[in-house]
Amino acid sequence: NAEPVSIFSEGWLQRVYKEKAVKEVRSRFPPEPNGFLHIGHAKAIAVNFGFARHHKGVCYLRYDDTNPEKEEEKYFTSILDIVKWLGFEPWKITYSSDNFDKLYELAEELIKKDGAYVCHCSREEVNMQRGGPDNRGARYACEHRSRPVEESLSEFRAMRDGKYKAGEAYLRMKQSLTDPKEGNPQMWDLPAYRVIEKNHHHRTGEKWRVYPTYDFTHCICDALEGITHSMCTTEFQQSRISYDWLLEQLDMKVPKSEEKGPMQREFGRLNVGGTILSKRRILMLVEGTTVEKKNADGTTETKTIPPAVRGWDDPRLFTLVALRRRGIPAKALLNFVEELGVTDALTEIQPYRLESSIRKHLERTVPRQMLVLDPIKVVIEDFAAEDDQEITVPYDPKGAIPGERKVKLGKEVYIDRADFREEDSAEYFRLAPNKAVGLYNVAFPIRATSFSKDANGNITEIKAVKAEGEKPKTYIQWVDVATAISVTARQYNSLFKTESPNTLDWKTGGWADDLNPESEIIFEHAVIEKGLSDLIDTHSLNPSGASDDLVRFQALRTAYFCVDVESAKDKIVLNQIVSLREDKAK
Ligand code: ATP
Ligand code: MG
Ligand code: MG
């Protein structure tokens, strides 16, 4: 039974396993609960949870909650939700803060081993000690580095007990700051603990005034949880040396060996171009922002920029809640991440690559429907009583998706405004006066005979007749007027006009001038065949939690859509997932 080849059974991930081929693999996904996850995190989730699953091990979801200033409950809930949506179940859910007592003890232990000292230097002074602004100058120790262990210990306790304000004292690891041969800034006496005064922590309340840094916390939490393979992104490559150093100081790892303790390895991030992933910037899009503008005459002006999207889950964003809401199936997203592969190189993609992968997935998995975005009524004047019928149509003409639906045909049908022209021409193949067009699945084509307009010149109704026996050049989608379901359909385009929105002016609000006015196009009066209600009845409208059962379909000649989660039975909203074909402009 050869196992199917997967990203875990070859390449980078296989090598990582072989470097520490243990029986009981333990990994972890350690998000900071200070924002919503984005598409890049889907890779980190797939790597960490997938690795454990592949090796029949376990994976923790660990909230890295060491910064009480930035964390909010809604992020915790959403992160777990998304992990489950992607099809993974954490073996245990833990919090870095679970270990605050232990971390504090270990900090004291480190001090006692002369591996850390309390320092009172300013940020500027520390930067000078670390070689100045370009980190190239001579490095030197401050007076605190050589203070007696006992003194550091009592000062550290004083930090804990409230003697110092933020910035007045912090605990520094005694690494290799003064070794001129040590070229890695991660070894230049990094901070281990700092005072945070605004200190209501969501789990430990007011208990602590000192909080451990990432560099102090992460490796120790990995070790305490018995993590075997600690995989993170390559910006932590430089940190591997301090990760190992600290664990070795605390006898949690053996130098130059993977016998004991966790092993950190780094893979390349997944970045998406043409969009914004930074939490801070997305927040501006979600909440809008107020900026101060300096005029030439020295006066300042305040400019208020309104929100550019409806929320963190607005389908134009690339947060995972947004991609979910837009209707991208979790499975398709995971397949995409696997297709890209995992190495230590950065993967930078443009949105169209994701879209083409999603399209391939949907093509094979969702039923077809007839949707008319901008309807005009067509009255088939010679439609006889016996023409009234219910046509049985398969969900997929190619048969890849099982099932069929009943499509009603009556005397009046809607077609899309874009499929009619007042004046015919030779190279035009859809409906026009005296020209016939085919209606999908209907035995006879129709030929337009006349049309009427309202006071603004908009066509309100077309009269047509059956064009039996004629061979139309083209078939179009249509919806029976009597049984049509009214829906609102939203189509999405990129949020910005530029392809590199990260280069916009994010300081003084210049980004707002580059917003694409057509990033969302809403069709308030769209209609869809009555079969949609059968699709909805067999699904649940609410995809929260683990389920991924949004109603998705291919609207013929239009796009792939899903039923938005905030729809009600009598007020259905559709979100475009992706277009049918790649946009030619790209
Ligand atoms: P960002 O700065 O983009 O918001 P982050 O690194 O602050 O991301 P964390 O919550 O710390 O976010 O991330 C949790 C895990 O996800 C980390 O191990 C991190 O390396 C990984 N991760 C974050 N961004 C990406 C990305 N673009 N591609 C792959 N993995 C990522
Ligand atoms: Mg982080
Ligand atoms: Mg971050």
TrEMBL record:
Coiled coil: none annotated. Keywords: Aminoacyl-tRNA synthetase, ATP-binding, Ligase, Nucleotide-binding, Protein biosynthesis. One of its GO terms (biological process) is glutaminyl-tRNA aminoacylation. Residues 24-363 form the Glutamyl/glutaminyl-tRNA synthetase class Ib catalytic domain. This is glutamine--tRNA ligase. Its EC number is 6.1.1.18. It catalyses: tRNA(Gln) + L-glutamine + ATP = L-glutaminyl-tRNA(Gln) + AMP + diphosphate. It holds the Pfam family tRNA-synt_1c_C. GO terms for molecular function: ATP binding; glutamine-tRNA ligase activity. The keyword Nucleotide-binding applies. It comes from Massarina eburnea CBS 473.64. Gene3D superfamilies: HUPs, Ribosomal Protein L25, Chain P. Residues 367-464 form the Glutamyl/glutaminyl-tRNA synthetase class Ib anti-codon binding domain. The lineage of its organism: Eukaryota, Fungi, Dikarya, Ascomycota, Pezizomycotina. One of its GO terms (cellular component) is cytosol. PROSITE patterns: AA_TRNA_LIGASE_I (PS00178). Belongs to the class-I aminoacyl-tRNA synthetase family.
